[in-house]
Amino acid sequence: MSFVNVTKPGELEIKYLKNNFGFSALHLDDYTNKTQTPKIETFKNYTLVVLDLPCFNSALLNDQDNGKAHFPPVPFPQFKETEKRRRIISSQVDFFVGKDYVVILHDGNLLPVSDMFAYCQKTLRNREELMGEGSVFLAYKIIDALVDMSFLVINELSTMIDKIDKELEKKPSQRTLEDISTTRRNIVVFHTMIKPVLLLFKQLEQGAHKQLNGKMQPFWGNVGDHLIKIWDRLEDNQELIEGISESNESLLASKTNEIVKVLTIYSAIILPLNLFASIYGMNVTLPFEDEPFTFALIILVMVVTSYTMLMIFKFKRWF
Question: Is the pLDDT score of 105 beyond 90?
């Protein structure tokens, strides 16, 4: 029983796999060019499982660069106030499942693969635990860990939504708008990745792809259940962020209306005052213009007019 973990395969690795395992050159080239979609294909000597799974464009775990392995996965860190906004990206992983081997090609973003490989390297007991039941069981354990990793991504999305909600209660800013936009984008991208994978495991649960089923058929149902839970949480998060976005837009519109209303009231008050000032500022003869009390009278008329208009606006509850 062999477990081969290939991270960021180059030409030498591709050539080795082709010569030693007999993999189709088309499948290997498709992985290199990232042209495959989630699928399961059965061939004479092996079964190809292609999955697209979500991860953030920065490391999910701080220990990734230190080469430390975590199995089972460590708790996901809470979102930090100072942390930069992160976007979800698609990370492709290819499983070549043969009779006595599992070969995995991935780009290194999906930590459970490397964690489980390191776990098997440590002791014979660990290898017996994961590899003793055959290649299909090993592939199931890795896929199950990868799907469970998606819960960590969901947790961060939920944390971000809570953070946005609190910011809207306190003092929304331009950063809040950017967070809403990024979160909505992340949820949509997550949806597009999970949907085809969910369909694949429904097929496996129903007995399709015989080389991966047999006694393993109930296990695929467990993965399918996890995917359904992820889908449901995605739907809930999408409804939450859509509601928050609409509330924020309503709040912005209300603030804009308040500003426009105040400016309109000032404009309406100043308009008749400008009229009086313009009339008595013209170079034409006007009644009482030479009288000493004319200036005071004009000021009084302006004040009375302004006060009257304010009382009318107040009576109509325009402010």
Answer: yes
